[in-house]
Amino acid sequence: MSKDQKGKVENEVMDSIVSLCKRRGFIFQGSEIYGGLAGTWDYGPLGVALKNNIKKIWWKRFVDDREDMYGVDAAILMNQRTWEASGHVGGFADPLVECKKCQHRFRADQLEADASGNPTKKCPDCSGALGEVRQFNMMFKTHVGAAEDATAVSYLRPETAQGMFVNFKNVLDTFHPSLPFGLAQIGKAFRNEIAPRDFIFRSREFEQMEIEYFVKPAEWSKAFSHFQEQVHGFISDIGLNASKVHELEVPDGERAHYSKRTIDFEFDFPFGKKELYGLAYRTDFDLKQHAEYSKVDLSYFDEENKERFVPHCIEPSFGLDRTVLAVLTDAYTEDSMGSEVGDENEKEKRVFLKLSPAVAPFKVAVFPLLKNKPALVTKAREVFGTLKTEFAKAGLQGVTFDDNGNIGKRYRRQDEIGTPFCVTVDFDTIEKGTGVTVRDRDYGKQERIAEADLVKWLVEKVK
Ligand code: GAP
Question: In this structure, which residue's CA is closest to atom 9 in ligand 1?
């Protein structure tokens, strides 16, 4: 397949995923009724459920299951000195170039080179002449309070990390942890990206799940390797295909100003291999900078060796929206299967999300075979109630009831939103007491399960 053909197919896949997300209530364009706002996306009911499942899995692995991690939820607006100290006011910029004719703006480093391999001087939209490249700071600036002078300037945080560095001393003073220990946070970050693109991959408002893990200077390498493994552990927890994840050792000269070592975890998205997560050794850069700018001592006293020093920091950083996109693109599947209603020999094309039960918005959907038979509906409601209660006891959510349209349509709808199991109450359930049918999303195979065994059977499969 030529590169052009490949590009087209990949875009078709992305178009199908974007349209599924809108059609089924995962993700909508931000401010859609007003024509949208570039680089912003709104999550609908299923998108929120998917996102929350991912957040819970992350929090469990990195906070709840460990003794050395402390969760925080810092303010998005921070004192402007934070961003001077961190280097973002001076250096958080992308190269911007503007077309002199149509005034469209581009990220200079993302434009294709001309035929001789030099940076293009022509606008990709109108072929007009491009102006000089200048640095464009990506932080959203705002004013806090009624005054709009320089002292009131603040920024929407471009990373959650700084909310943890400024709370290092608070956690140290209140919990007295010994090194190594970490702070963890999930929250929004904002970047005025020059060219938001590829659906939720690069947006202007997004969520990060970050850890700042503080260590003795000599122990950074051990902690770095530990989190390198943990990143893969998390990728496996959420059911992502490990063969689509690649590590890239970021070379000297290409790392962020604070980093002495960075690994990018890249993922095979339909539009190419792109950064999913980052792991950085931030040294003592941030704590030292904040100590200097705030005049607050951010050192640590090591009781064992009776020495005082500024801890070094390892930072695993996970984009939540990129995780959602990786999960959705990985799960998106088209196949054809024998019709489950009507002619068994008739092949139908179907689209389904092969989501891991761990992240799927719904794990189980319960149906009455027919909507207009009260006895079936009553029994299906009873099964639904029992499953909901028992799932909650097992620490699970995601049981739904569906009686919209005919059974074939319900299967297709649940396939499209990635529900792994559909339970149907039919006439045999109520007349012969032979149990319910459970249909497997991936194979379309149905099994009859006795009512008494249903909870155990499903909980085992889902867990
Ligand atoms: N604290 C370190 C930091 O923010 P980064 O590589 O700039 O490092 C970390 O961002 C992660 O945040 C990325 O790996 C990516 O998953 C996510 N991310 C960054 N910019 C993004 C954007 N514009 N839209 C969506 N996710 C983004």
Answer: 317
